Amino acid sequence: MNLIATSLTSESQKQYESPFKDWDESSWIRSKPLREVSFSGLLFRPELTPLAWHPKISKEPDLYKAILAYRLLENIQLTSLIELNYVNPICHDLVQEKTVINLTKEQRLDALKIYCDEGGHSLVMEWFVQQVETISGLNHKVLEQPHFELNFQKLVDAEYNLSPNLIKLFMTTILETLYVEAYSAIPQDERIAPAVRAVIEDHITDENKHDIYFRGIFTLLWNSLSELKKEQVGQLLPKMVRTFLEPDQIAAHNILQYLGFSTVDSDRILEEIYVPEKITQNIRRAAKPALKMFEESGVFSISSVKQGFENYQFIA
Ligand SMILES: [Fe+2]
Ligand SMILES: [Fe+2]
Questions:
Q1: Any idea which ligand is nearest the CA of 114?
Q2: How far apart are CA 307 and CA 316, in angstroms?
Q3: How many angstroms does the Cα of residue 315 sit away from the middle of ligand 2?
Q4: Sign of the CA dihedral 73, 75, 81, 87?
Q5: Of 298, 159, 118, residue with least CA distance to 218
Q6: Which residues contact 269 (CB under 8 A, 6 or more apart)?
Q7: What three-state secondary structure class fits 29?
Q8: Within the chain, which residues score under 50 in pLDDT?
Q9: Which DSSP letter does residue 192 get?
Q10: Which pLDDT tens digit goes with each residue over 58-116?
Q11: Measured in angstroms, how far is the CA atom of residue 89 from the centroid of ligand 1?
Q12: Helices H, strands E: what count in the chain?
């Protein structure tokens, strides 16, 4: 542990209120069973599946169901990637005190609880995907690598002022604030297969706690930065949010081709669905929990940073 980190132990950290007090009873990995999948309903929420809105798909029941099933697989693939490649490595660094912030013993224990939660989520999701593939004959490999991973790597490679670890730490705090609100309507949506609703409800229960935890980490991290670093990180934040929330059009294209659409038809469908202004509107809506976290930590009090968010149309 270095001197800078030690000096950052604040009174507010000592008063840390753990969101994990009922972890033994409430956490998925500690207390809940694996779910059997059945096809008694849709496999994902149509409102969260742009491809399903297109008339060439919405009017064809089998195609419509297959598109929703692929949306579930895409969602699980991305969620597992985040859990295994982002959240858990960051939890490891927090526990091992390898970041610029200094945590209390309880905060370090809670990082380990998140590590266990995320490992459990990935296990359940992998098992779930295997069942969906067996029942439906779909293949998640059609999706290829999530575009988020490629685009985030480009963003890290293009940034010379900040360390990749610091960027990844900030990225993880953002990722952990965006899950709950995005999928909160699914458990109550009676059109969706009960197993999917139950799995997402269990996940949300855990992620609600992760959200609280990582909001606290974001504030600590932000407050640990010099004014210059705040400007540099602040310029990067809107790009990180946008990189994550942009629709994966390569995956959508792959799905359409796998389901029998020609390249020309697939291109036309994507053009008709993914209108740039509409994408920006949807991204702004989905980004709200992260924007609230930035606001509460005083990120927008730096005018050049606020301007960066305005340029990306996150705020007016
Ligand atoms: Fe998770
Ligand atoms: Fe999480």
A1: 2
A2: 9
A3: 26
A4: negative
A5: 298
A6: 51, 54, 56, 57, 256, 261
A7: helix
A8: 1-8
A9: B
A10: 999 999 999 999 999 999 999 999 999 999 999 999 999 999 999 999 999 999 999 99
A11: 13
A12: 17, 0
First to last CA, the chain: 41
pLDDT at 270: 97
241 CA distance to ligand 1 centroid (A)? 18
> For the whole model, what pTM was predicted?
0.92
Tens digit of pLDDT for each residue in 160-192? 999 999 999 999 999 999 999 999 999 999 999
* CA of residue 114 to ligand 2 center, whole Å: 7
Gap from CA of 198 to ligand 1 centroid (Å): 14
In order of their start, the domains of the chain are 24-311 (1.10.620.20)
Q: How far apart are CA 91 and CA 116, in angstroms?
A: 10
Q: Find, among 204, 157, 171, 189, the residue nearest to 68 by Cα.
A: 189
DSSP 8-state secondary structure symbol assigned to residue 186: S
Residues contacting 27, CB < 8 A, separation 6+: 113, 116, 117, 120, 206
Report the pLDDT value the prediction gives residue 10, as an integer from 0 to 100: 60
d(CA 23, CA 233): 33
In angstroms, the CA 174 to CA 215 distance is 8
Paired residues of 42 in beta bridges: 192
Contacting residues for 178 by C-beta, under 8 A, at least 6 apart: 244, 245, 286, 287, 289, 290
